[in-house]
Specification:
By secondary structure, the chain is of the alpha+beta class. It has 17 helices and 39 strands. The chain is elongated and about 145 Å long. 23% of the residues are buried.
């Protein structure tokens, strides 16, 4: 049966291993100590005589360099070398003396050994011949030799000879071989790579001790022992090891609903098949603990068990006790007098637990956010005149499963705005510049307003080419009067010109497509406003994931190089969507498009719609810059099929539209459409006006339009406005002829608490031209998500003399939406709306009387979801009539891009 160990058992095992290791180290230390005692006598001394050099080339420099290299090796090994007197050394550079002379020299210098020799060099081949002699002994000199090729191999040959000589001189044993035993999984070569001890080295206990530590440091072994077998030729060294078990499996017990097994496995470093390492396990416990604490499970307890199996394998189990989740139950403040706890809590990203916590994570404690809250609170106070406020570090207290946060605040005095002045280089009269400042409208000092004024003045100067203008607000506090005097010191510097504009990162989009969106040009004055507009234009293209701007000084102080780096993104898209409305019921839409065709900025799109009443296909091509001027051209071909209650319409057509920017945020356009329509399947109860159109109908029309759009967002705007007016004239050919006028305006006003009030007004008028037809499908109908929500198409349609629903020749529409954030970070907003309007029939008098207009109201959700923008709204009919389809209806639309 397999044994299992708890954390306590593992600690005991670890202590046992440490005990064995310490014992081994003590043995080695004792061996080293005894060796030191035995060699406490002075080290052996060596006298090295100059070498003889035999070579065709002049290599006399080696006569002293070879002995110097041997001397260095001997001293590193622990021997002492003796140097000759310079005059005597010159004498011994002559041909070798007799052995008796060498013996006398050795005895005179007190050398234990005398070493001399020669180096013979023939072409690239060398031969080293050395002799070692003991002056006090009667034995003959020992001979050593080495051969090699090339000057680059001479040092290694000398090193080998030095090691062999050191064994004799220092009377040490040579290591014959280094072996590893006991290893099953870890290859011997992998272990030998960390060893300093190598065959041929002198047996050295200090080096062996370092090798022992190096093997333990690998982390794969429970025990390592060194055995040395003495032989006549030297020492056989063997490292006997015991490997740690291999992890056969890793499992978890105690996991609840907080994390799945896969979530915990992602944070640990221990893996199946890896070596069981207690240090790794302890680190993984810390990782698991941190994972839970990030979810506010601060009572988490993690232990482990090890189950020993066969073949040196083991199973690891992490044992978890999750405890209860801690949530922030209370955030309180001490020392705040000017603002209530509720007001201060609104300024913080950290929030107490509430009914929306399961969506918003309110109540979760994240220390990085709490640190940011200190800065947010400080800024809040300084924006209300409390310049000397001090916000202390939050105190966190855990009680039960609740977290209580206390923040101490020293508010200090509140300062009002005193005198405001300007000095330095003034582009305009001082009074005009001061009049532009918003800080004057503040009663109390506001750091944010002051910062915005500095940016405004900087932009003003940079728009005149002063790119390096320095606007420094000097703030002087009068503690006695509790006022702040502010002086703006402005140093404009030199006017700066764009010397060069460098564009990079556009691997697909052509340079001219980017440059034509810029509002700054080479050799022109710098302008921050025009530069910002240029970057905005590039972002609006939709071709780039990121647009980076960097400005560096040019060749002169008054020149600047503008670097624009872009990161391109895919511009081809396949999108699908769905919708539901009273006028169409359920429908689906799909499109495939390329918005940057061949990198030229052109757009090619094919889109279609399939609904319960309509089907259409549209193919279009847009060139945004004809002849490299901002003249946009669009050509399209379409097939529309409508199935109304009274008749069916099948039409084919094509159109051409040209547009050109006429003012800031404003474009004018003119378009031509040729439409061929076949009216068939007319019901018997259909109005006579529809029956008269049976068969072929041709429309040839021109439409002009002027549109202004300064909204900050297309789906949920928070500021700006949108206005348009259009005129269509049909009758250039065919049997259809009319004049149609449509105008609309929409405004977006930011209110308190991030609420946005959005009024929208729209109206239209159509009039038949002489001797032409005005078909019902060119008249006006209302109802649906973009007009009067909650109504069906026929609910608002005028009635003819027979009581049939027909289109009107005039309409008015008023919409009022109140937009507000629900989950802003997730892109979800709510809306409360009121709609009113009416479609007027022929000869019906227009009276904008609230009692005469149809009305609806409701609520809805707008969500910028990962799948695309979604609208879900319900409209209640406020003035329901018997002919209405019901009390109201849901309106839904969605678009999803892939």
């Amino acid at each position: 049966m397999a044994k299992h160990y708890s954390a306590a058992d593992a600690i005991q095992q670890l202590l046992k291993t440490l005990k064995i290791t310490i014992t081994s180290l003590i043995i080695i230390a004792i061996m080293g100590l005894s060796l030191q005692i035995s060699v406490a006598q002075p080290p052996a001394s060596v006298l090295i005589l100059p070498f003889e050099i035999f070579s065709e080339k002049d290599m006399s420099y080696l006569q002293t360099e070879v002995p110097a290299a041997l001397k260095k090796s001997f001293e590193q090994a622990g021997a002492r070398t003796i140097s000759l007197d310079p005059l005597l050394e010159q004498e011994w550079k002559k041909p070798a003396k007799k052995i008796e002379e060498i013996k006398q020299l050795g005895l005179q210098t007190g050398a234990d050994y005398v070493l001399w020799g020669s180096l013979t060099w023939i072409e690239q081949q060398f031969s080293l011949d050395l002799k070692l002699f003991e002056p006090q002994s009667a034995t003959r000199p020992r001979t050593f030799s080495a051969e090699g090729r090339g000057i680059e191999n001479l040092p290694s040959a000398l090193d080998k000879l030095a090691r062999d000589l050191s064994v004799i001189i220092l009377k040490r044993q040579k290591i014959l071989a280094v072996e590893v035993s006991g290893n099953n999984r870890i290859e011997a070569d992998a272990i030998k790579r960390v060893l300093k001890t190598q065959p041929g080295d002198i047996y050295n206990l200090k080096t062996l001790s370092a090798d022992l530590k190096a093997i333990y440091a690998m982390g794969y072994f429970d025990d390592v022992r060194i055995e040395a077998e003495t032989r006549p030729e030297g020492k056989m060294v063997t490292f006997k090891i015991k490997e740690k078990p291999t992890l056969r499996s890793i499992r978890f017990s105690g996991l609840g609903w907080v994390f799945e097994k896969e979530d915990v496995e992602e944070v640990i470093t221990a893996k199946r098949g890896s070596i069981l390492n207690i240090k790794t396990i302890q680190n993984d416990i810390d990782r698991i603990t941190e994972l839970y604490k990030n979810k506010n499970f601060h009572n988490i307890k993690v232990d482990y068990k090890i189950y020993e199996g066969k073949d040196n394998q083991a199973d690891l189990e992490f044992v978890l006790d999750e405890g209860e989740k801690f949530t922030i139950g209370k955030i309180q403040f001490e020392g705040n007098q000017a603002f209530s706890d509720k007001q201060l809590r609104k300024e913080m990203a950290t929030a107490e637990k509430n009914i929306f916590s399961w969506i918003t994570s309110a109540g979760d404690l994240k220390e990085d956010k709490l640190e940011q809250d200190v800065a947010l609170l400080s800024s809040f106070y300084k924006n209300h005149g409390y310049m000397q406020v001090r916000v202390g570090e939050p105190l966190i207290k855990f009680e039960g499963n609740q977290i209580e946060i206390t923040i101490k605040i020293d508010e200090g005095p509140q300062f009002k705005i005193g005198a405001v002045d300007m000095t330095g280089d003034l582009l305009l009269p001082k009074e005009e510049l001061i009049a532009t400042l918003k800080i004057l409208k503040e009663e109390f000092y506001n750091r944010e307003t002051l910062r915005n004024d500095v940016l405004k003045l900087t932009d003003l100067y940079s728009s005149e080419g002063y790119a390096y203008a320095d606007v420094a607000p000097m703030v002087k506090e009068d503690l006695e009067k509790r006022i702040v005097d502010i002086t703006f010191d402005i140093q404009k510097g030199k006017q700066v010109y764009f010397e060069e504009i460098i564009i990079s990162g556009n691997t697909r989009t052509r340079d001219k497509v980017i440059r034509r969106e810029l509002r700054v040009y080479e050799q022109e004055l710098f302008s921050s406003q025009r530069l910002k507009r240029s970057i905005r234009n590039l972002n609006r293209l939709g071709f780039f994931e990121e647009v980076k701007v960097d400005t560096v000084k040019g060749s002169d102080a008054d020149k600047m190089v503008l670097k624009i780096g872009v990161t391109e993104k895919p511009t081809g898209a396949f999108s699908v969507g769905a919708g539901y409305g009273n006028t169409e019921n359920l429908f689906g839409v799909a499109s495939i498009s390329e918005n940057n065709l061949f990198g030229r900025g052109q757009k090619l799109e094919l889109k279609g719609k399939l609904g319960s009443k309509t089907q259409n296909v549209n193919l279009s091509f847009t060139e945004p810059y004809i002849y490299d001027i901002p003249l946009s051209g669009k050509i399209e071909f379409y097939n529309w099929q409508y199935s109304y209650d009274e008749y069916d319409k099948d039409s084919y057509g094509s159109g051409l539209t040209l547009s050109y920017p006429v003012f800031d945020y404003t474009r004018g356009s003119i378009g031509y459409i040729y439409d061929w329509a076949n009216i068939n399947n007319i019901q018997a109860e259909a109005p006579q006006s529809i029956k008269d159109l049976q068969g072929k109908n041709v429309k040839s029309s021109v439409t002009t339009k002027l549109r202004y759009d300064s909204r900050d967002h297309g789906f949920v705007p928070t500021s700006g406005s949108s206005h348009s007016i259009s005129y269509e004239f049909a009758g250039l050919g065919g049997n259809i002829g009319f004049m149609k006028y449509i105008a609309e305006t929409a405004w977006y006003f930011p209110l308190f608490w991030e609420f946005v009030l959005a009024p929208h007004v729209e109206g239209g008028y159509v009039n038949k031209t002489k001797d032409k037809e005005l078909p019902d499908y060119e008249k006006f109908y209302m109802g649906g998500i973009d007009s009067l929500r909650g109504f069906e198409r026929d609910d608002l349609a005028p009635k003819d003399s027979e009581g049939n629903s027909v289109g009107g020749d005039r309409y008015v529409q008023f919409n009022l939406d109140l937009l507000f954030p629900l989950l802003k970070s997730q892109g979800m907003f709510g809306t409360l709306f009121f709609d009113t309007g009416k479609v007027y029939g022929d000869r019906e008098k227009i009276e904008i009387d609230p009692a005469d207009l149809r009305q609806s109201a409701g609520l809805g959700i707008r969500w910028m979801s990962p799948l695309g923008p979604i609208r879900l709204e319900y409209g209640f009919i406020l003035d329901r009539e018997d002919s209405d389809h019901g009390p109201g209806a849901w309106e839904f639309s969605m678009a999803s891009a892939f």
